[in-house]
Design goal:
1484 residues; alpha+beta; 4-stranded antiparallel β-sheet; 50 helices; flat
Length: 1484
């Protein structure tokens, strides 16, 4: 079912799409349409572009235009809007204009000025018939949000200033990871960082509106839709003679829009939606049936139609009622006899196409896979048609060559599904220039399995046959999908005026199978060929042309391709069921990709799904006939679409992104050369800015409805003007031309009285460092804006981001002094006035105020600004600008350094400026020598010397004749020799000098300073009492000692030891091999009071041992003994290893040094020691450890307390010289019963061990019984006793099993030892079972738990008894009889043991029965699984490999058959691999 409206979709490439949509969803032509374009831009632009209207009107008469008369056509009333806009965007490029334009112009009759929406015929348009579910408005329905248009800011000329490193992290320190010395410095760092911080460079564009980039914009073609989907006559009206025009089924569009219907009619429209004619009549329509294929001739004067009945008609548009030619399907008899060729009656024509520029030559194809060439000529005014079959075979029975009679006397063909279904067919159209391939009349045919290219002239010939290959799509659902499209020859872009063949682009064929699109370029090459003259019998060489096919690129999509259409010579449209993509063949990239619903499109074969002849899923995607493309442009339409919506900001941004190369997507319509693109786009961008600014500030727009709201409160349009400034600024940055931004645009804002908006938006670019040169009149306004707003910090940032030549010096200095904007003031002094001493003078005045004021508030306020002097000195003395850090020009840098060094290290007070200045004083009294350097040292010596340390690295002090590093060092020593400096300042002076003397030995000679200076420096560094700088002073002393050797080393060493310079002492003592002193220095070093000390101690012990004949010296051993307690607090285990390695005799001393309550640490010490020794020992035999016997017994005692489960393992490890009796006594005292039994058995006393086990069991049983009756023990204690019983029982069982084995060496009466073990356990069970407890839950619970555990113990023992070998078997009846003897238990418990014995045996039997059942089930499962596996394996083995009949490479039979049908007897070699079977010859 088809609805009754059409869509026209104009894309960035001016594409057309015709959708089917319900008429009820479309507004009528008379209904007004709301204009939602903010600002009325599209309706006002014509007033901004008034110009030479007469000239444009003359051009419009010659240009064909698309007149849009949809429901929204009344939105724009003027006729000159697009023409005026073209003055800005320029005329469309006509480089690819086809020669049929003159014919098109002759068919376009309407005045293009009557309607809106003219589209040049040079623009591509694809028209699509859709089914009934389209978008419900003429707004874009397939557009996707464009990706953000990125903008890379220009490189800033100023880098963010780095916060000054505070004194606590200066270069004079030994390391930088220190906390601030006081809160004042910490707060200053935060203040300075906040004052001179920057915004993120990406923040500039974060909130900038991005231009929406709509790729496709669908628009309703109302006039065309009314004709095709208009009201249809009823059945009664048709019976009375009313014509039924039908519903559209197929489409053709190249110059005209032709639509075929299911009633056999053809509607022909021009691109103004004017219905030119309807081809066909009622009589012919009833004969030929529904239109299934359509084609328009090259000159747009003839239309060819194919029908479902097999008929082909050709109409002359001058006489459309009657077909000019009819190709009727031949009779079966004519085909069988060979007298005629053609489509059989009832064969649906699926493709028809004109050949080259001819009107009477067509090719056609039907659903059965047959394709024909029809030459419809006349001889002596009589039709003389010639039909040639170019592809396919007539349908016939499989295996039968003859025609099969269906009915007597009549011959026909029995229909069957074609094996080689024809997917697509197309002839090569004529291009804008002639090409040698035009003479061949090329036809491309695509089937499921192959591509065939046929040339019809000079005689029909197959030029190319290409198999599909084994691609993944050949077996997928998309295997029956294939499309193709030609792009003809055109002039090469290099020289459009040159007609030489060298500059012609060859025709290109795009064809697809499944998901993959391939491109094939066709050209002609000449070859020499010898030709025999039959009359003269002589041969001569002639040039014969042959076609050459070249594969170029391929493109694979995510889904099967349904249709392809060329946009231009380099871009191809590809439609799938869910997307539309544009592919650029030059870059081999997808440049557009949007969503698309192909289910809306019309399928001409949908009617064949009712009887099941075509599956519905296959028919629903048969939409290639509903998609056509025609010439077009992209870029200009992209801009126009934004302008028409009134979004001039997005239009500017999109043009800028194209200029910078950031715009995504298609660039069709722009020159290929990058230089030409920039020239065109730069001009258009400037003109867009001018037009948009004029529109934004026009009086009509300022007073129109966009400034009012329904409630009368008005609309805030601030964002419009903010975006205008931002967009124009970005565009001017891209163009590198700021005249429009600073002159025209600023003047508009000034005239409108809204300069604040302009200044705030411009400021963002200034602070980001993107724009640094701003005219002084704008700079004045910007600084004054922040001054009046009370935001001096922003004014400061503006000042030092702008080029100094743009500043009003008086305004800037006055503002900075008023608001204490020191960064900006320094910038003005240095960059604008080239005065590098004035900032120091200003900051020195703050330092002086700090020294004379006493108020805490005043001191903190002045400190915050006074500390700026140090980063300023660092920057300038290093040759950089402050605060940006950019390099100064060499001459200016030398001048600045010379002035600063001369001022700071001046011996007396100086006058500044030198001419007409004032005397700069540092105090109220007499001025000392070097007053300014002395003042900075008093203020913060560490910060000042840190700055000098960085400045010393600059080469200026090497080349200068006025000052040098040596002179500065002498000045500092002179200042330090006075008594007016704080002690900390003197310390840092000494550190600075000591560290720089070895850094610059060629410039700072010790002898040039003073012969005693190095020695005095060392003494001063070591005798300072400041503990905070100890590491810093030690590092400085190390620096100095690298170039200086003191005279009295022993005295210096003593001083260093008192100062705590242990690192220096360690290096010296290591060098002199003083191991005892070296060990002492390591132990005393406060920086090594962690586990890191142990490696140093081990190294000293190792070195001293190697120096003393591999024996540790006694003094070292004594030193180590005294330090054991300290070392074990650092790392107990490492200390144990260290002592065991170098001094095992100190183990007792180490353990003794621990406190009386440190048994756990003693155990850890010995445990690590014993385990590490066993791990390091290579042989597995037990041996003597490095600990004495008392320590072994101590370890056993401690292990019984802290790790009883490992006692037996320890006893086994120590069995060599172990005192067994003492060990057994220790284990028994600590309740390690299992270890006692194991030890007695190891000593060869198994009977004694079992007797001991019996005694233990009686003792524990009595305890358990008392606990049950009296409840005098906790549950944990009872559990501990029960576990001890289990341990004893397991130990006794192990002894019995050991002596019951075949390999046992000791002959013992087995029955007696098992009886002894079981009787004692049964005795315990009998005692607990016969307990009489009072009524109580706890007593009953304890009895139940204990009795259950004891019974389990007896069961486990019986189970072990059953497992003993039968060679020395025990008599079970006699053993059981002895165990149930009542006299055995008469002395201890009343009653008989039968009850308990029965319960124990019953439980054992139930356990065995359960185990037996599980084994039976497992056996059955195993048998079944094994049987199934073996059966499957046997079947597979009997089956073997199945020999395939075709070769994996050539797909021919492996064994060809002879004529009799049997295999050929010729020897053929076949190769069988793991993955394939093929002919051996095919592998090479």
């Amino acid at each position: 079912m088809f609805a009754n409206s059409l869509y026209y979709k104009q894309t960035r490439s001016s594409t057309l799409r015709m959708d089917a949509i319900s008429r009820s969803s479309s507004p009528s032509h008379d209904e007004p349409v709301d204009d939602d374009h903010g600002g009325g831009y599209s309706t006002r632009m014509e007033e901004l572009f008034d110009g030479d209207e007469e000239e444009r009107a003359g051009k419009c008469e010659d240009e064909e235009e698309f007149v849009y008369d949809g429901v929204d056509a009344n939105q724009v009333t003027g006729t000159t809007y697009r023409e005026q806009l073209r003055d800005v965007l320029g005329p469309d490029d006509t480089s690819d204009t086809f020669e049929e334009e003159e014919v098109e112009r002759s068919l376009l009759k309407e005045d293009p000025s009557e309607k809106f929406g003219d589209v040049d015929m040079e623009e591509h348009a694809h028209i699509i018939f859709d089914s009934p579910n389209p978008p419900q408005s003429p707004l874009p329905v397939m557009a996707t949000p464009s990706p953000e248009l990125s903008c890379t800011p220009l490189q800033s000329h100023t880098n963010p200033p780095e916060p000054f490193l505070l004194p606590s992290v200066s270069r004079l320190r030994s390391y930088a990871s220190r906390s601030p010395r006081n809160g004042v410095h910490h707060n200053m760092l935060a203040d300075i960082s906040a004052t001179i911080g920057f915004a993120s460079p990406s923040s500039l564009w974060k909130n900038y509106p991005k231009a929406e980039r709509e790729v496709f914009r669908w628009t309703v073609l109302h006039s065309t839709g009314d004709h095709l989907y208009g009201k249809r006559p009823s059945k009664a009206a048709i019976a009375l003679g009313t014509s039924n025009l039908g519903s559209p089924t197929v489409l053709a569009a190249n110059g005209l829009i032709c639509a075929g219907t299911d009633a056999g009619r053809i509607f022909v429209f021009d691109f103004k939606q004017t219905l030119l004619c309807i081809c066909g009549n009622d009589s012919s329509a009833s004969t030929v049936g529904s239109t299934s294929a359509l084609a328009l001739s090259h000159d747009h004067t003839y239309v060819a139609s194919g029908h479902v009945s097999g008929y082909i008609q050709i109409f002359d548009l001058k006489n459309p009622q009657t077909p000019a030619r009819i190709v009727a399907p031949p009779s079966v008899q004519a085909v069988v006899s060979g007298r005629h060729e053609g489509h059989l009656s009832g064969s649906r024509i699926v493709s028809v196409s004109f050949v080259a520029g001819r009107h009477t030559a067509v090719v056609s194809a039907d659903e059965s896979g047959l394709a024909f060439y029809h030459s419809l000529g006349k001889v002596l005014f009589v039709e003389a048609s010639d039909t040639i079959r170019i592809l396919g075979n007539y349908p016939q029975e499989p295996g039968d060559e003859a025609v099969v009679p269906i009915t007597p006397g009549i011959q026909s063909f029995r229909r069957r599904k074609p094996r080689n279904l024809l997917l697509a067919m197309a002839t090569l159209p004529l291009g804008t220039v002639s090409h040698p391939t035009d003479a061949y009349h090329i036809v491309a045919l695509l089937t499921i399995n192959k591509l065939v290219v046929v040339g019809l002239k000079p005689s029909p010939k197959t030029w190319l046959k290409r198999a599909r290959g084994n691609d993944t799509d050949s077996t997928s659902p998309g295997r029956r999908k294939g499309t193709l499209a030609w792009f003809p020859s055109i002039n090469s872009p290099q020289d459009l005026k040159d007609e030489d063949a060298e500059n012609k682009m060859h025709p290109t064929l795009a064809y697809s199978w499944g998901r993959t699109i391939r491109f094939l370029r066709v050209s002609e090459t000449m070859m020499k060929q010898s030709v025999l003259n039959p009359r003269t019998s002589k041969t001569r060489e002639v040039d014969r042309g042959t076609l050459v096919f070249e594969d170029t690129v391929s493109w694979t999509l995510d889904h099967a391709v349904l249709a392809v259409q060329w946009l231009n010579a380099n871009q191809l449209l590809a439609f799938t069921a869910g997307t539309v993509s544009v592919y650029d063949t030059r870059t081999s990239k997808v440049i557009e990709h949007v969503s698309f619903n192909a289910s809306f499109l019309v399928s001409p074969s949908l009617g064949y799904t009712a009887d099941g002849s075509i599956p519905y899923p296959e028919s629903s995607t048969d939409v290639a006939h509903s998609i056509r493309a025609y010439k077009g442009k992209y870029f200009f339409c992209a801009i126009l679409s934004l302008v028409e919506r009134g979004d001039f900001l997005s239009a500017i941004e999109l043009t800028r992104s194209y200029y910078t190369g950031e715009a995504p997507g298609n660039r069709n319509g722009l020159p290929d050369s990058a230089e030409e693109q920039k020239a065109v786009l730069g001009q258009k961008l400037h003109e867009l800015m001018v037009a948009s600014t004029s529109y934004a500030f026009s009086e009509d727009r300022m007073t129109d409805s966009t400034h009012s709201s329904p409630d009368g409160r008005g609309v805030d349009r601030t964002s419009l003007f903010e975006g205008l400034v931002t967009g124009c600024a970005r565009s001017c940055i891209a163009l590198d031309n700021y005249d429009f931004l600073f002159e025209d645009l600023f003047q508009h804002f000034e005239d409108a009285g809204i300069t604040r908006i302009y200044l705030e938006q411009l400021e963002t670019f200034v602070l980001e460092g993107i724009i640094d040169f701003v005219p002084p009149r704008i700079t004045q306004r910007l600084i004054a804006l922040h001054d009046k707003s009370g935001k001096p910090a922003l004014a400061e940032q503006v000042i030092w981001h702008i080029d100094p030549s743009c500043l009003d010096i008086n305004q800037a200095i006055r503002l900075c002094q008023t608001h204490q904007l020191w960064d900006a003031l320094i910038y003005v002094y240095t960059r604008a006035l080239q005065d590098y001493v004035a900032p120091i003078v200003e900051l020195i005045s703050l330092i002086r105020q700090k020294s004379v004021r006493n108020g805490a508030g005043a001191q903190a306020s002045s400190l915050r600004h006074a500390y700026k002097i140090f980063p300023y000195l660092i920057h300038v003395l290093s040759g950089q600008t402050y605060p940006s850090g950019e390099p100064l020009p060499p001459d200016e840098a030398e001048h600045a350094k010379n002035d600063i060094y001369g001022f700071i290290f001046n011996g007396t007070s100086a006058v500044w400026p030198s001419e007409g200045g004032r005397l700069i004083l540092t105090g109220n009294g007499a001025e000392p020598t070097y007053p300014y350097a002395r003042l900075l040292l008093r203020f913060d010596a560490e910060s000042f010397l840190h700055s000098l340390d960085i400045a010393f690295e600059d080469s200026f002090l090497t080349d200068s004749s006025d000052i040098s590093r040596l002179s500065i060092v002498k000045i500092l020593l002179d200042i330090a020799s006075c008594q007016d400096l704080p002690l900390s300042a003197v310390v840092f002076i000494n550190i600075f000098i000591a560290r720089n003397i070895p850094k610059y030995p060629q410039y700072i000679h010790v002898e040039d300073i003073d012969s005693h200076a190095p020695h005095d420096l060392l003494i001063s560094l070591a005798t300072s009492i400041d503990p905070e700088t100890r590491e810093d002073r030690q590092l400085a002393a190390e620096y100095l000692l690298s170039v200086y050797s003191p005279r009295d080393s022993s005295e210096i060493e003593k001083i260093f030891e008192e100062a705590g310079f242990y690192r220096i002492l360690q290096n010296r003592r290591r060098h002199e091999r003083q191991w005892t002193q070296l060990l002492s220095s390591y132990l005393l070093d406060p920086s090594l009071q962690t586990e890191s000390l142990l490696p140093y101690v081990e190294e000293v012990l190792d070195l001293s041992k190697s120096d003393n004949h591999n024996v540790l010296p006694q003094d070292i051993q004594s030193e180590l003994s005294e330090a054991l307690g300290h070392l074990m607090t650092l790392d107990l285990q490492s200390t144990a290893t260290l002592v065991d390695k170098f001094a095992p005799s100190l183990h007792e001393a180490a353990l003794s040094s621990m406190g009386t309550g440190d048994d756990r640490r003693r155990f850890d010490y010995l445990l690590h020691l014993i385990h590490s020794q066993e791990t390091d020992r290579e042989d597995a035999t037990p041996g003597r450890l490095h600990i004495c016997a008392p320590l072994e017994l101590l370890f056993i005692r401690l292990q019984c307390r802290y790790m009883p489960s490992g006692v037996i393992e320890t006893l086994d490890r120590m069995r060599g010289d172990l005192d067994w009796q003492a060990a057994e006594r220790i284990c028994e005292e600590n309740h390690a019963y299992g270890a006692v039994l194991w030890a007695m058995n190891q000593r060869g006393q198994p009977r004694d061990a079992l007797a001991k086990a019996e005694a233990f069991e009686k003792q524990l049983t009595q305890r358990i019984a008392r606990a049950i009756v009296d409840l005098d023990a906790s549950d944990a204690t009872v559990d501990e006793w029960i576990n001890a019983l289990r341990e004893i029982g397991q130990g006794g069982t192990n002894i019995c099993l050991e002596h019951s084995s075949v390999s046992a060496t000791t002959a013992l009466p087995l029955e007696d030892i098992w009886f002894q073990l079981l009787s004692s356990q049964l005795h315990s069970v009998q005692i607990v079972s016969n307990l009489r407890v009072v009524d109580g839950v706890d007593s009953q619970r304890l009895k139940s738990v204990a009795l259950s555990s004891l019974r389990d113990l007896v069961q486990n023992t019986f189970a072990s008894l059953v497992t003993i070998s039968s060679t020395r078997a025990v008599s079970f009846p006699r053993l059981f009889k002895r165990l149930v003897d009542p006299g055995l238990y008469a002395d201890s418990t009343p009653g008989t043991p039968y009850t308990e014995f029965r319960m124990i045996l019953t439980g054992m039997l139930e356990s065995y029965r359960s185990d037996g059942d599980m084994l039976s089930i497992s056996q059955k499962l195993l048998d079944r699984d094994v049987f199934d596996t073996v059966e499957e394996y046997t079947k597979e083995k009997m089956r073997g490999w199945s020999v395939q009949s075709l070769c994996s490479h050539c797909h021919q039979r492996l064994l060809p058959h002879d004529r009799s049908g049997g295999p050929n007897q010729t020897d053929i070699e076949i190769t069988v691999t793991r993955t394939a079977i093929c002919h051996t010859s095919c592998q090479h």
